[in-house]
C-alpha cells in the first residue's frame, strides 16, 4: 500500500485516542511515580506518556505475554482430557505510542515464531493488533536503532506512524490497510498534511551490523567473550526487557486434578537453561551464555531467520545492573 | 479454529516393560482413531511426552515406523517428568506431541553394511532405526550391532537382544563394563571403544551409527577413524535439552542449528561444523 | 583514588594477587565492575559516588575465581558480604586482599580479617536511612494495606532473577526456585508466583542480608525488593541482637537453636 501523509492536530489526537479506545482495548505508555514508563491497558489519555525515550519493558508482552496458557487439562489418569484455548477470543488491541524500534521488533518476533511451523498464539495476537507508532523526537546514548538498519522515524511495524511537528501537532503516515481503516473511520480528525518536516531525533550510527555479522562468523573462540563478560551476573534482565528475545519455558501447574500448561519468558543467560538431566551442560559458564546472546542476534538469526535479532532500543544496556553495554561491545566486535 | 501446536495427542499406555531397575518402555496407543490414522513418523524422530501436571520430556520414538498402530518410548527415571512416568500404570493417559526433527537417511544407506554402536540408555534412540532396517533386511548388506552397558542388568531390550543374537543375518556383540558381568554372562567384558577395536568391523561400504554418553562417543570416534570410517559415514544423534520442538524456545540452539529441527540426526561431518555446545 | 590505583598496581606487580576487582567508568558515564589483571591498566580504577554495585558477588563466580587470587575494592557492604561468605565457607579469608574504602572514600589499611572486623564494628550497621524511612512508612500501614502495596509491586515482577543474581549471598548453583521435585515455587511470573518467590528469597536471606540494597537496585522494573530483606535484617537484630556480616564466624540465626532463644512467637 502506498503511504499517505495527513495532519492530525494536538487536540484531535486525544479524540483519536478516545475514538480507538471506544471499540477496542488500548495499550499505551504511562509514567509511574518513580519516572518509569510502563505500558498499561486503557489508561486515561491525560496519563499517556508521549515524551519518553523508552519504556522499562518493551511492548512484546502484547504478542508474546510473559505467561501464556497453552491449554487446560484434567488429569484423571485413565480418562484425562484437554481443553483448548479459544484463540479467537483474543481481543482486538490498539498499541499506542510505541517507538519505531519496538514496532519493528514484531517482524523479528515473527521470524522466530513463524519461521517454520506457525505459532498461532503469536500470529493471532499480531492479527488482532493495530499499531499507532510514534517517531522519536528524543534519544539517548543507549539508542542505536540506526546501527541495526532502522531509524527513529522508521514506519516498520506501524499501521499509522505519528511524527511530532514543532508546534505539537503531528503528521500521520498511513502505512497499512489497518491504518487506512482507522483513517476511514474518523476522517474528520485528519487534515491535509503541511509541508513541514517533523522533529526527529538524531541517533548516531555506532557500528555496521553487516560487519559485525561478518566478524562473528569466525569469532566463536575469541577471548573477547570471557574478557567482556566477567562482570555479567547471569540474570535475565536483558532478555526480559528485550523486544525481540523470545526464548521461553513450558511448564505445568495444577490445582487438584485440574491444571494448565503454559509458556513463560525464559533466558539463554540463565545457567540452567541448557542443563541436561544428566548434569551435562553445553553452556556451562557465563561467557558462553553471553556469547550465545550476541551470536544468536547478530550471527545465527541473520543466517537462519533472515532477520537481525536486534532493533537497537538499548533496553538491555540501560536495564543491566552491571552496565553490560551491548552497543559498546558490538562496536568492539566490529573491529576484532 | 487454528491449530494449537502445543496441544498433545492423548495416548493410552497399553503395555509396560521394565527394562532395568530404572528404565521402562511404554507402548502407547492413540485414544482418538482419527489421529492414529493421520499419524506417521520416520526413524530418528522424537516427541514430547507428558504427564499432565508434571510437564513434558523429550525422547525418541523407540519403535519402528514399520510397526503400525502404536509407538513406543523408553526412558530412564531421572527428572520430574520421567519420575512421574515411572509411576504410571497400564491404562493411564499420557500426552504426546510429535513427531519432530529429521530422520536417519536409511534410503541413502541401501546396499551398504550397517554398524550400530550404542551405549547404555542410548540404544532406545537407535532401536527405531535398527528395527526399521531389519524389517527391510534385503535392502542392506551386513548388519552389526555393538551394544554395551555398565552392568548386565543395565542392558535394555533383553528379549530383543536375544532375538537379534539368534538371527543369522545380524551380528550382535554385547558387552558390559569390567565388573558389571554376572557368572552367566557370555558376552564381552570391556568398554565399547575397546570392544569395537577388538571386533574391528570393516569400514568398507559401511555406515556407522553411534549413540551413547559423551564419554563413549569421545573414545569411540578415534577407533572409528582408525578403522577407516569417513566423517560423512558416521551418524549420531544430539540430545540437547528441548522444550518446544519447533525451533522457537531457544534451548537446543547450537550455532545456527536447532537440534529439534535440523537434528537430532547428524553426520559427524555436520557435527564438526558446529560450535561445541552439545 | 591515587592511593587505590597505586595499591592495586603494587599488588598485581609483586604478584600478591592476579586480579583486582574494582570499578571503572563505562561509556555512558556509569561506573561498573572492572577486573584488572594487568598492572598497567590499574589506572582505569575509579571510586566515587557512582560506584554502587556490591562487588562481593564476583567472589563466588567461577570465571572470576579462575583468574587466581583476588583483591577487591570494598566498601562496608562488600566487607560485610565477605564476612558472611567466609562464615558460610564460600571463600577463604586468606585468599582475598581487601582494599577497604571508608565512607569518606579513603583507602583503608585492612591488613587482615581481624582488622576488617574491627572496622565493621565501628560502623553504623543499620539499614540506610532512606530505606529506614520507607520501611517506617510501610510498617505504619495495616497488614491488609501493606499486602496490597506489595501486590502492586509484585505485579511488575518478570522473574528475571536480577535480585538473586546481584546478591552476594545468593550463591547457590541451584536455587530453590529451580528445584522442581517438588516444584516449590510456580515458574510463572504472576502475582502469586512472584510473591512466593520474593517471600522465599527474603526468608533465605533473613539473618544473612547485609543491607547493601543491591537486589532492589538491580531490579529492571523497579521493585524495591531490598525492603523485604532489610525489614528482616531489622527483625533479626530486634530479636537476636545481631547484624549480619560482622565477623567471619557468623552463625545463621534461622538455622541455629539455642536453649535460651525466645519462643514468644509460639502461642
Defining traits:
heterotrimer, B: 278 residues, alpha/beta, Elongation Factor Tu (Ef-tu), domain 3, Rossmann fold, 2 domains, seven-stranded mixed β-sheet, six-stranded antiparallel β-sheet, C: 267 residues, four-stranded mixed β-sheet, 10 helices, 4 strands, globular
Q: In which order are the strands of the major sheet of chain C placed?
A: 2-1-3-4
Number of DSSP helical runs of chain C: 10
Q: Nearest-angstrom radius of gyration of chain A?
A: 21 Å
β-strand percent of chain A reads: 15-25%
Largest interface: A-B, 58 and 48 residues
Low-confidence segments of chain A, given as residue ranges, are none
Overall SS class of chain C: alpha/beta
Ranges of chain C where pLDDT stays below 50 over 5 or more residues in a row are none
Distance between the termini of chain A: 42 Å
Largest sheet of chain A: 8 strands, mixed
Fold and architecture overview:
- The complex is a heterotrimer of chains A (336), B (278) and C (267).
- Chain A has 336 residues and is of the alpha+beta class.
- Chain A contains 10 helices and 12 strands.
- In chain A, a hairpin with a 5-residue loop joins strand 8 (160-164) and strand 9 (170-174).
- Chain B has 278 residues and is an alpha/beta fold.
- Chain B folds into 2 domains: 9-100, Elongation Factor Tu (Ef-tu), domain 3, CATH 2.40.30.10; 113-237, Nucleotide-binding domain of ferredoxin-NADP reductase (FNR) module (Rossmann fold, 3-Layer(aba) Sandwich).
- Chain B has 8 helices and 15 strands.
- In chain B, the strands form 3 sheets. In chain B, strands 10-9-8-7-11-12-15 form a 7-stranded mixed β-sheet, with helices on both faces. Chain B has a 6-stranded antiparallel β-sheet with strand order 4-3-6-1-2-5.
- In chain B, a hairpin with a 2-residue loop joins strand 13 (253-254) and strand 14 (257-258).
- In chain B, helix 5 runs parallel beside helix 6 (214-226).
- Chain B is globular and about 50 Å long.
- Chain C is an alpha/beta fold and 267 residues long.
- Chain C has 2 domains: 2-122, no CATH class; 129-255, no CATH class.
- In chain C, helix 3 (76-87) links the parallel strand 3 (70-74) and strand 4.
- Chain C contains 10 helices and 4 strands.
- In chain C, helix 3 packs across helix 4 and helix 6 (143-154) packs across helix 8.
- A 4-stranded mixed β-sheet of chain C has the order 2-1-3-4.
- Chain C is globular, with a radius of gyration of 19 Å.
- Chain C starts with a helix and ends in a 27-residue tail after the last helix.
- Chains in contact: A-B, A-C, B-C.
- At the A-B interface, strand 4, strand 5, helix 3, strand 11 and strand 12 of A face strand 13 of B.
Amino acid at each position: 500500500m502506498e503511504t499517505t501523509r495527513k495532519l492530525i492536530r494536538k487536540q484531535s489526537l486525544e479524540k483519536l485516542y478516545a475514538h480507538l479506545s471506544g471499540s477496542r482495548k488500548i495499550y499505551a505508555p504511562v509514567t509511574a511515580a518513580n519516572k518509569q514508563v510502563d505500558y498499561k491497558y486503557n489508561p486515561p489519555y491525560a496519563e499517556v506518556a508521549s515524551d519518553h525515550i523508552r519504556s522499562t519493558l518493551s511492548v512484546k508482552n502484547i504478542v508474546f505475554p510473559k505467561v501464556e496458557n497453552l491449554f487446560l487439562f484434567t488429569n484423571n489418569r485413565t480418562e484425562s482430557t484437554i481443553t483448548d484455548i479459544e484463540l479467537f477470543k483474543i481481543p482486538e488491541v490498539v498499541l499506542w505510542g510505541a517507538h519505531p524500534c519496538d514496532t519493528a521488533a514484531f517482524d523479528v518476533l515473527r521470524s522466530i515464531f513463524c519461521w517454520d511451523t506457525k505459532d498461532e498464539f503469536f500470529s493471532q495476537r499480531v492479527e488482532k493488533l493495530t499499531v499507532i507508532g510514534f517517531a522519536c523526537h528524543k534519544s539517548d546514548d543507549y539508542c542505536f536503532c540506526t546501527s541495526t538498519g532502522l531509524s527513529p522515524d522508521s514506519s516498520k511495524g506501524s499501521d499509522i506512524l505519528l511524527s511530532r511537528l514543532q508546534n505539537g501537532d503531528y503528521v500521520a503516515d498511513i502505512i497499512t490497510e489497518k491504518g487506512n481503516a482507522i483513517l476511514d473511520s474518523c476522517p474528520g480528525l485528519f487534515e491535509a498534511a503541511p509541508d513541514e518536516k517533523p522533529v526527529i531525533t538524531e541517533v548516531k550510527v555506532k557500528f555496521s551490523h553487516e560487519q559485525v555479522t561478518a566478524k562473528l562468523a569466525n569469532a566463536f573462540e575469541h577471548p573477547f567473550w570471557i574478557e567482556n563478560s566477567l562482570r555479567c551476573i547471569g540474570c535475565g534482565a536483558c532478555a526480559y526487557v528485550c523486544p525481540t528475545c523470545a526464548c521461553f519455558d513450558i511448564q505445568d501447574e495444577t490445582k487438584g486434578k485440574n491444571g494448565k500448561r503454559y509458556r513463560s519468558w525464559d533466558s539463554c543467560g540463565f545457567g540452567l537453561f541448557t542443563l541436561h538431566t544428566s548434569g551435562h551442560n553445553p553452556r556451562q559458564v557465563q561467557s558462553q551464555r553471553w556469547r550465545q546472546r550476541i551470536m544468536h542476534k547478530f550471527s545465527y538469526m541473520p543466517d537462519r531467520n533472515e532477520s537481525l535479532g536486534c532493533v537497537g532500543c538499548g533496553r538491555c544496556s540501560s536495564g543491566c545492573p552491571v552496565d553490560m553495554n551491548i552497543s559498546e561491545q558490538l562496536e568492539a566486535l566490529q573491529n576484532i | 479454529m487454528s491449530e494449537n501446536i502445543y496441544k498433545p495427542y492423548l495416548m493410552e499406555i497399553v503395555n509396560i516393560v521394565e527394562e532395568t531397575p530404572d528404565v521402562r518402555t511404554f507402548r502407547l496407543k492413540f485414544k482418538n482413531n482419527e489421529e492414529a490414522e493421520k499419524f506417521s513418523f520416520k526413524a530418528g524422530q522424537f516427541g514430547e511426552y507428558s504427564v499432565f501436571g508434571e510437564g513434558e520430556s523429550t525422547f525418541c520414538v523407540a519403535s519402528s515406523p514399520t510397526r503400525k498402530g502404536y509407538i513406543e518410548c523408553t526412558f530412564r527415571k531421572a527428572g520430574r517428568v520421567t519420575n512421574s512416568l515411572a509411576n504410571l500404570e497400564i491404562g493411564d493417559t499420557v500426552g504426546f506431541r510429535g513427531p519432530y526433527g529429521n530422520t536417519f537417511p536409511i534410503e541413502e544407506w541401501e546396499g551398504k553394511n550397517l554398524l550400530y554402536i550404542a551405549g547404555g540408555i542410548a540404544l532406545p534412540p537407535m532401536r527405531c532405526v535398527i528395527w526399521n532396517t531389519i524389517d527391510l533386511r534385503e535392502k542392506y548388506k551386513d548388519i552389526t550391532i555393538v551394544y554395551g552397558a555398565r552392568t548386565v542388568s543395565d542392558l535394555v531390550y533383553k528379549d530383543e537382544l536375544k532375538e537379534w543374537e539368534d538371527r543369522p543375518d545380524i551380528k550382535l556383540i554385547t558387552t558390559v563394563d569390567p565388573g558389571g558381568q554376572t557368572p552367566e554372562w557370555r558376552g564381552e567384558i570391556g568398554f565399547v571403544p575397546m570392544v569395537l577395536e577388538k571386533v574391528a568391523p570393516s569400514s568398507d561400504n559401511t555406515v556407522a551409527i553411534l549413540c551413547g554418553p559423551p564419554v563413549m562417543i569421545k573414545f569411540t570416534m578415534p577407533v572409528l577413524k582408525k578403522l577407516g570410517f569417513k566423517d560423512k559415514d558416521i551418524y549420531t544423534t544430539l540430545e540437547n535439552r528441548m522444550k518446544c520442538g519447533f525451533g522457537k524456545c531457544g534451548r537446543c540452539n547450537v550455532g545456527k542449528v536447532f537440534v529439534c529441527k535440523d537434528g537430532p540426526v547428524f553426520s559427524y561431518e555436520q557435527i564438526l561444523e558446529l560450535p561445541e555446545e552439545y | 583514588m591515587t592511593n587505590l590505583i597505586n595499591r592495586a598496581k603494587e599488588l598485581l606487580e609483586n604478584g600478591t594477587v592476579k586480579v583486582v576487582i574494582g570499578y571503572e567508568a563505562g561509556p555512558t558515564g556509569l561506573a561498573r565492575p572492572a577486573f584488572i589483571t594487568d598492572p598497567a591498566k590499574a589506572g582505569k580504577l575509579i571510586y566515587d559516588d557512582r560506584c554502587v554495585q556490591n562487588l562481593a558477588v564476583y567472589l563466588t563466580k567461577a570465571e572470576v575465581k579462575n583468574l587466581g587470587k583476588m583483591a577487591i575494592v570494598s566498601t562496608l557492604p562488600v566487607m560485610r558480604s565477605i564476612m558472611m561468605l567466609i562464615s558460610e565457607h564460600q571463600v577463604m579469608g586468606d585468599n582475598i586482599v581487601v582494599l577497604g574504602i571508608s565512607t569518606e572514600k579513603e583507602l583503608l589499611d585492612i591488613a587482615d580479617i581481624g582488622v576488617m572486623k574491627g572496622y565493621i564494628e565501628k560502623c553504623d550497621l543499620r539499614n540506610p536511612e532512606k530505606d529506614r524511612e520507607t520501611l517506617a512508612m510501610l510498617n505504619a500501614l495495616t497488614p491488609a494495606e501493606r499486602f496490597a502495596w506489595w501486590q502492586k509491586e509484585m505485579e511488575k515482577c518478570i522473574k528475571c532473577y536480577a535480585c538473586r543474581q546481584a546478591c552476594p549471598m545468593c550463591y547457590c548453583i541451584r536455587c530453590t526456585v529451580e528445584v522442581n521435585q517438588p516444584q516449590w515455587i510456580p515458574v510463572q511470573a504472576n502475582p502469586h508466583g512472584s510473591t512466593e518467590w520474593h517471600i522465599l528469597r527474603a526468608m533465605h536471606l533473613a539473618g544473612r542480608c547485609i543491607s547493601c540494597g543491591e537486589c532492589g537496585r538491580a531490579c529492571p522494573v523497579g521493585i524495591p525488593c531490598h525492603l523485604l530483606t532489610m525489614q528482616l535484617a531489622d527483625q533479626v537484630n530486634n530479636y537476636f541482637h545481631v547484624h549480619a556480616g560482622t565477623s567471619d564466624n557468623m552463625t545463621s540465626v534461622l538455622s541455629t537453636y539455642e536453649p535460651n532463644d525466645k519462643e514468644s512467637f509460639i502461642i
